Amino acid sequence: MRRIFIFLFILTALHSTAQFNVTVTPSDIMVCFGGTAQFTATIQDTASSTYSYNWLFKGSYISGIDTLNSYLAFLNISELDTGYYQCIARDINNPAKLAISDSVHLGMHGQLHIDTLYRFNPLACPRPDPCKGQMKVLVSGGNPPYTYEWGSGHSQDTIGYNLCKGTHLLTVTDTLNAHCISREYTIDVLKLPPIAFTKSPKDTVYLSNPFLTVAFPDTSEKNLTNWSWDFDDKSPVVPNVNPYQHAYSATGRYYVKLNFTDLNGCDSTITDTIDVRLIRLFIPNVITPGRGDDNSALNIRASDTTGTKPVGQNLDLSEIFLSNEMVIFNRQGRRVYERANYNSGDWDGNNLAEGVYYYIFSVHGENGDEVYRGSITILR
Length: 380
Description:
Blueprint: H1 2-16, E1 21-25, E2 28-31, E3 37-44, E4 51-57, E5 60-61, E6 71-74, E7 83-91, E8 94-100, E9 104-108, E10 110-111, E11 113-119, E12 133-140, E13 147-149, E14 154-156, E15 159-163, E16 166-173, E17 179-187, E18 198-200, E19 204-206, E20 211-215, H2 218-221, E21 224-230, E22 238-239, E23 244-247, E24 252-262, E25 267-277, E26 281-282, E27 286-287, E28 301-303, E29 310-311, H3 317-320, E30 323-329, E31 335-340, E32 355-365, E33 368-378
Parallel strand pairs: 2-9, 10-17, 19-25, 27-33
Antiparallel strand pairs: 1-3, 3-6, 4-5, 4-7, 7-8, 7-9, 11-12, 12-15, 13-16, 14-15, 16-17, 18-20, 20-23, 21-22, 21-24, 24-25, 26-28, 28-29, 30-31, 30-32, 32-33
């Protein structure tokens, strides 16, 4: 104890000659049992410096605090936390330059007692409204009647309602605020089952092959009581079918929805997008077998609006047309290549000699057939 008095005497002497001041606010805090509070130190100094902060409680250092923080925070306050505090601020670049604040006080109102605190209604669904929580509290002690602050939603005496998912702070105060108590509580909601669906094709459907297949895993079906597919094109929703194939009839961007009800009776919706487009093909007039570039085989891509340039990646023609046929002739009219359901890159010249060849590419779509004709030059 004698060492503490000597230490404080030295600090007082240094404080009287300090080149800056440290002030702690607020100077007096009164809180409820279980509540929170914070003291903040402020430096008054004309120099631009960095400071460290040590805090004293009843004249002794408080350990385990980050000295670069200018605040002292309290959580779940009890009688043991009440008393007088001071802050010692020190210039990090000049440790001899320090100051000590005046004493500040943390006090606590008389303690009420929370006898019970429990959820008053079943768990709510996470969507569309997770703010359906209800809690009930019973309090004793002090001087009733009590005032209840639930930190969220609304209250009616001992019941808080319309409480949202998350952690909140309940504070109960008696008459004239003489006694009070604070307590954290958590509102939880029911958990949705991990439902997801897939689309095929993944991104784009073409009107020549306008079918979109949607599905979710069979293992997910056990978590659902019912579901429906909505394809955003004014067609009827499709209930309780999995997988399902839908045909679009117009171009555009559509929002595909899986609406479902889980075993807890919670309704939810998962949404994804699909683009429906028309397409015009770009078939190159030169291939260069063996060179290892994009022209080393007969790759087919989408054409730009002028019809003269390719855009995008090589196409998966099976996604674009119901079927197709590629036939290639030499200059004498003899067939040198023929394939049903051709896909990009299937033909790389077949070791044919350099020269000019001719193709007929017939495609069959949902809304009609189309034929592409042209020449291809092989350069080796």
